Amino acid sequence: MPSKPSPLNSCRSGGCTLTGALSVTTSVVDSATIIHGPAGCAHHNFSLLHATGLDNDRITSLNLFSSGMLEPEVIFGGEDALERAIRRAVRGDYSVVYVLSACIADTIGDDVPAVCRKDWGVPVIPVPTAGFLGGSFQDGVNNALVSIAGTLTGTAERKNGICANIIGEKNLEFEVEENFNEVSRLLSLLGITINVRFIHCAGTGELASLGGATLNVLRDEGMGSLGDLLNRKYGTRAVPAFPAGLSGTLRFLQSAGEIAGTDAVESIAGETGAQASLLEDFSDIAGSSIRFDPVFPGLTDDCSVSEVIERLGLEISLEGVRVPAPLSPPVGTAGVRRLLHRWRRALHA
Amino acid sequence: MKQIALYGKGGIGKSTTSANLSAALSLQGCDVLQIGCDPKRDSTRMLMHGSFIPTVMDLVRERGDANLRKEDIVHTGFNGIRCVEAGGPEPGVGCAGRGIIAAFQLLEKFGALKGDIIVYDVLGDVVCGGFAMPMREGYAQEIYLVTSGELMSLYAANNICKAIKRLSLRAMSTCRLGGVICNARDTPREEELVAEFAKRVNSTLVQYIPRDRIVQLAEMNKQTVMEFAPDSPQAERYRQLAACVTKNTRLSIPTPLEIDALEALALEFM
Ligand SMILES: Nc1ncnc2c1ncn2[C@@H]1O[C@H](COP(=O)(O)OP(=O)(O)O)[C@@H](O)[C@H]1O
Ligand SMILES: [Mg+2]
After folding, report:
1. Residue A13: pLDDT band by 50, 70, 90 thresholds?
2. Domain that residue A320 falls in
3. How confident is the model at residue A289 (pLDDT cuts 50, 70, 90)?
4. CATH number for B160
C-alpha cells in the first residue's frame, strides 16, 4: 500500500462507456477488444488504462484493435472498416473478440451487432457502448458484464462445496486486490470459497463456470440488473454489494450466510470481536477533532463513514485536523482499518 | 459573384427549376455553376443531356480524395454551364449530410466555386447540419423556396424558413430568404395561396411556374425546356425567373409559421 493514496490514482471513472467496458473486456486474458471508431478513441483509452495501471503498480498490456474510422467511413458507413478490423483480430490467437463502438459509429447508425453475427470462427461479441453517446463509465462496465454473461455457454451445474462468484469488481480502483482479499476472508469465515472473479484477470475457460457458484457477490448496488440476469440464467442469488463499513460487514455475513444456507451466527460474533479490537487499536485518536480535506473530494456523508466517526467518538469541526475522505465506502473491517490508518497519519503529522 | 440555393420538398421540381434557371441565366450571358446537393444526384442531368455525371462522393469512394482533380468533378454541359453533383452514400448507410460537407471542402480545395452565379439545388428536408451547409457563411446568400400549394410542400418550405431564420441570426451570417417560387401542381387557387404563404413568412412570390407537359417532353428528349423549346410559354416563365433572380434585392429574415397557422392557411384556400 502506498503511503499517499490520492484521488488521482484511484479514480478513473470519469471516462465514457468505452473506458468502462474496456476495464472489463481487457480483464479477459485470452480476449481481444476492437473499438469501432476513430483511432484516437482507442489511443486515449489505452493511455488512460495504461496510466491507471502504472499508478496501481500494474503493467497493462491490452489486446486492443481499432477500426480506424476516418471521414470516408463517416460518410459512407463504417461497417466495412469494422469487418476489416475483425478480420485482423480473429487472425490472432484469441478465444473471443469483443467489439465496442465509439460515439460516431452509432451516430451514423452502423449496425455493429449485425457485423458481429457473421461467422468469424471465434465468438465476436458486441458490447453496447457508443462512447459518450451511450452513457457513463459505469454504463460501459455494466453493459460489458451483461454482454459477456449473456453469451457464456457454460452450464449451471453446481460445484461441490459452497462457492461464490465475485461480480463486477472495479478493476481500475486502487484497492481492487485489498477489497477482494477482504471479501474472500469474510466469505471464508462462512466456509465459502471463490469460484470466478467476474471479471478480474480471468480466462474464458474460467468464465464458463460462472453458473457453478452457490451465490454471487455484487460489487455495488448499481449492478442489480446484472444480478437479476445471472439469477434468471443460473438460478444464483446475489448479495447486493460489497460490505461497507463496520455494521455493513456484519450484515454482509448475515445475508451471504442466508443465501448460502450456512449459519452466520458464529462468524458474526467473531467479526464483532475483531471490530471491537480494531477500534481499541485506534484508541489513541479517539475523541479527536477532524474535518474532511477539501482538496481531495470524497465521501463525506456516507453512513459507513459516519458510523466509524461515531464509534471512535471523533468530532467533526471547522477547527479539526484535515483528514482525507474515502472515495468509496471502506470495504469490510480491513477497509475501515486502512481508513483509520490514513486518518491517524494525518492526526499525528 | 452571386450564390443562390433552391430548397424544397423532394419531387417538387427543384432540379427541373434549377436546371432551367441555370440555362436561362447562361443564355443571358452569365457564367453559371450548378451544384446538385442531393444524394438523388439528378440535378444537372438535363443540362448534361441525360447523362449522370460521376458524383464527388462516388469519386471519393472509388479513388480517395487525394487522387482527384478538378476535371473529375466539374463537368461542362449545355451552353458551357459547369455541373457538379455532390452525391452521397448508398441509401441506408453512413451520413449523407457529412458527405455534403466533404464535397464542399473538396470544391473549396479545387477553387471550383466560381463564376457569375452559383446555383445550389438542395434536398429540401433540412434534416441535419450537412444539408444546411449551402446556407452557411461564404456560400448561398439567397435562398429560394420551391413549393406548390400542397400542404406537405408548404410544410417543407416552412421548415426551411426555420433553418434560414436560425442561421441568419448568427454573427457574420449572410444567408437570407430571397423569395418563394411556386411550381404548380394545379391545386385550387394555388398562386394566391403560395403568394399568401410567402407574405406570411415575410417574403414574396417571385415567380409562378405553371405545370406544363412540355417539361416531360423536354425530359424525354434529355434536355431542359430552355434548350428543347426556347420559344414556348414555359421557357418564357423560366426567363422571367432568371431576370427576377438577377435583379432581386428584397432579401429577408423569414418568420416561419406555427404548424396550426400553416394548416389554417391551407384550409382557407381549400
Ligand atoms: N412545372 C412542371 N410541369 C410539369 N412537370 C414538372 C414541372 N416541374 C417538375 N416537373 C416534374 O416533376 C418531376 C420531379 O421534379 P424534380 O425537378 O426532379 O424534383 P426535385 O428535384 O424537387 O426532387 C420531374 O419528373 C419533372 O418532370
Ligand atoms: Mg432533385
Report:
1. low
2. 277-347
3. very high
4. 3.40.50.300
Q: How many domains does chain A divide into?
A: 3
Contact A74 B93 (CB under 8 A): no
Q: Which ligand sits closest to the CA of B148? A: 1
- Say how many C-beta atoms besides its own lie within 10 A of residue A132's C-beta: 13
Domain final residue, candidates A242, A262, A291: A242
Backbone angles phi and psi of A209, in degrees to 5: -95, 20
What mean pLDDT comes out for the span B174-190? Answer: 96
Asked whether the CA dihedral B57, B60, B65, B69 is positive or negative, the reply is: negative
Tell me: do A23 and A131 sit in the same domain.
Answer: yes
CA-based torsion, B195, B196, B198, B202: positive or negative: positive
Asked whether residue A145 falls in the same domain as residue A61, the answer is yes
* Contact residues, chain B, for A107 at CB < 8 Å: 95
- For ligand 1, whether the C-beta of B12 sits within 6 Å is yes
Q: Tell me the C-alpha distance between A230 and A208, whole Å.
A: 13
- pLDDT level of residue A8 (50, 70, 90 thresholds): very low
In percent, how much of chain A has pLDDT > 90? 83
Q: What is the C-alpha to C-alpha distance for residues A304 and A336, in angstroms, rounded to an integer?
A: 9
Count of the separate structural domains present in chain B: 1
